[in-house]
Amino acid sequence: MDLSGSDSKFSFGFGCSHASSMSPTPRIPIADDSINLQVDPSFRSSPATFSPIPLQLLEQKVAVQKEEEETPKKKDEKEDEHFRILGHHMCLKRQRDCPLLLAQSKHPRRTIVDTDLESRRAAVRAWGDQPLHLADPDIHEIMDKEKQRQTKGIELIASENFVCRAVMEALGSHLTNKYSEGMPGARYYTGNQYIDQIENLCISRALNAFGLESDKWGVNVQPYSCTSANFAVYTALLLPGERIMGLDSPSGGHMSHGYCTPGGKKISATSIFFESFPYKVNPQTGFIDYDKLEDKALDYRPKILICGGSSYPRDWDFPRVRQIADKCGAVLMCDMAHISGLVATKECSNPFDHCDIVTSTTHKGLRGPRGGIIFYRRGPKIRKQGHHASHCDSSTHYDLEEKINFAVFPSLQGGPHNNHIAALAIALKQVATPEYKAYVQQMKKNAQALASALLRRKCRLVTGGTDNHLLLWDLTPL
Ligand SMILES: Cc1ncc(COP(=O)(O)O)c(C=O)c1O
User: Fold this and answer.
1) For ligand 1, is residue 95 a contact (CB within 6 Å)?
2) What is the pTM of this model?
3) 209 CA to middle of ligand 1, Å?
4) Mutate which of 225, 226, 244, 343 to test ligand 1's pocket (most atoms within 8 Å of Cβ)?
5) Does residue 467 carry a catalytic annotation?
6) % of the chain at pLDDT higher than 90
7) Domain Serine hydroxymethyltransferase-like spans what residues (predicted)?
8) CA distance from start to end of the chain
9) 3-state DSSP helix/strand/coil % of the chain, to nearest 5
10) Which member of 179, 259, 300, 376 is catalytic?
């Protein structure tokens, strides 16, 4: 909730058992600062009638009452609740002269208010402290079944993984409570000193995990997913309708690289807002046809050329796509979502050696929380002789950082998910260990063992095998 604007009319879920008629209190109203405390119906524990309590910001002098004013009134004022919101002094006035209540006894109002308020406070405290199985048995039971399903079955989905306990702990932590729109050191909310530390640590671990120097590469760890990370890159660099070229979805590319059906239906927002023209694998071999890609790219002249995909079982020829991007003047982007674990451990060729921008999911091979990440080049450009200037090549330095960060926030996202960023930092710390390299090497061996077993049983694998963690089994003959 942003209360920093001048027009701060808002409602709180607040309960009160007073009658609605408030005695007029001498006060000086402050323009646009009147606040109405509304009763949230779910807050009521009894059918008693609750009415909204108009709440006003009081100026200091209002609180100063003359000595000679009646003592009960003064006493009542002490009972008023004073608090501050975003630096504004606020006062929750209590009902003073309800004739009905006064008629009942000398001080019945206090008793009723306190009992009621106390029981509601107790209820709120109890909600806050309840474990899931008590707070919501229905959800708890379904979650438990899903846990059994995950642990008792065999999961062979190449895009999924199991996070470690530490990642899970960070995900389910108090970090979810904090708003921190902006970047470390430049947030829109106060109280972000620790969130800044977490995000900065995550950034330095991301660079470290992929062996990148901070003067040559920057990284944004805020995207909620890889689809939104990719869209942020397009938003940063393209005007609506400008051109991108990525691997066709039926050839193993991802929809966020701009998919249209053969009938022309635009499936992803990428193809709705930008123009996309895909390249394909050779239908006979299953390998990417780089020569055809070059021909297409030179005709189409995309502003961004995308490599990387969702179901391509072979290593990418990054030097070759770099050459094509340079020839047609495109920015080269790799979506390494599926192979980021292999990239980090140098178990496949390295997109960072050749690309301008590298995006990834964080929840596949990296074993982190669900999310996206964008690496972008910074600093002076390395110019190679004989290469055409790319669309973003008008200066001697990369200008990707500001554009990409701005596209993530405020263009496409709001507050970053700080629990996810902490969880990602934990995962990236593990990615940089020798144990993680051993894990990735074993994963490759497992994929190759499965490929060999299937080939022995005369199954047809697209491209005849795998260089990475996934295989593509051609089921069309079945
Ligand atoms: C290459 C590639 N890019 C992007 C995505 C989308 O990731 P997310 O689900 O985080 O949006 C995927 C997901 O499978 C993918 O394989």
Assistant:
1) no
2) 0.77
3) 20
4) 226
5) no
6) 66
7) 134-476
8) 56
9) 40, 15, 45
10) 179
No. of H helices and E strands in the chain? Answer: 16, 14
Identify whether the C-beta of residue 53 lies closer than 8 Å to the C-beta of residue 22: yes
CA of 309 from ligand 1 middle (Å) equals 8
Pairwise CA distance, residues 272 & 258, whole Å: 8
Q: Is 147 a known active-site residue?
A: no
* Predicted confidence (pLDDT) at residue 347 exceeds the cutoff of 80: yes
pLDDT attached to residue 264? 86
290 against 30, higher pLDDT: 290
Question: Is 256 touching ligand 1 by the criterion CB < 6 Å?
Answer: yes
Catalytic member of 335, 356, 401, 467? 335
C-beta separation of 316 from 253 below 8 A: no
Of ligand 1's atoms, which has the minimum distance to the CA of residue 257?
3
* Cα distance between residue 279 and residue 294, in whole Å: 9
Residue 1: per-residue pLDDT: 37
Contacts of 234 (CB under 8 A, 6+ apart): 244, 270, 273, 274, 304
User: Quick check: 290 and 321 in contact, CB under 8 A?
Assistant: yes
Strands 331-335 and 243-245: unpaired
Collapsing DSSP to helix, strand or coil, 269 comes out as helix
**Atom from ligand 1 closest to the CA of residue 230:** 4
Q: Which residues contact 219 (CB under 8 A, 6 or more apart)?
A: 203, 206, 207, 212, 373, 374, 375, 376
Active site residue 445: no
Whether residue 120 contacts residue 113, with contact meaning beta carbons closer than 8 Å, is answered with no
What pLDDT is stored for residue 384 in this prediction?
Answer: 58
Of 243, 180, 210, nearest to 374 (Cα)?
210
Q: Are 162 and 147 in contact (CB under 8 A)?
A: no
Q: What is the CA radius of gyration of the chain?
A: 30
User: To 5 degrees, how large is the angle CA 269–CA 272–CA 275?
Assistant: 115
The CA 33 to ligand 1 mean position distance, Å, reads 46
Please compute the mean of the pLDDT values over residues 302-313 and round it to a whole number: 98
Length of the chain: 478
Residue in 428, 446, 246, 266 with CA at minimum distance from that of residue 341: 428
Q: Is the CB of 309 under 6 A from ligand 1?
A: yes
Identify the bridge partners of residue 361 per DSSP, sorted by sequence position: 372
State the catalytic residue, choosing from 77, 181, 317, 393. Answer: 181
Backbone angles phi, psi at 275, to 5 degrees: -100, 130
458 catalytic? Reply is no
Centroid of ligand 1 to alpha carbon of 366 (angstroms): 13
Q: Are 400 and 392 within 8 A, CB to CB? A: yes
- Ligand 1 near 362 CB (within 6 A): no
Q: For 23-46, b where at least 16 C-beta lie within 10 A, e where not — what string?
A: eeeeeeeeeebebebbbeeeeeee
